[in-house]
Amino acid sequence: MIRQWADERGAEPCSVPDSDYGGRPGRLLFDFPGYGGGNLEHISWDDWFRTFDERELDFIYQEHKKDGAQSNFFQLENPGR
């Protein structure tokens, strides 16, 4: 479901540079086309999902804005925090 949501928006998995720890990606994000993500570090889907699963994160997202336009809003939440 996460990958489908991202693919529908042309988003690529990425991380914030220099946020990694222990050789794993740090802050997980998506690079959406046209939103100036040039300073993001693109990573593989395997690395993105491995980190997501290891941290036991929840993916909270919005399909459409109030006006019906497609939304890019998402949040990764750690329910244990």
Automatic annotation (TrEMBL):
Stretches with biased composition (Basic and acidic residues): 1-11
Region of interest called Disordered, as start-end residue ranges on this chain: 1-24
Protein name from the UniProt record: 1,4-alpha-glucan branching enzyme
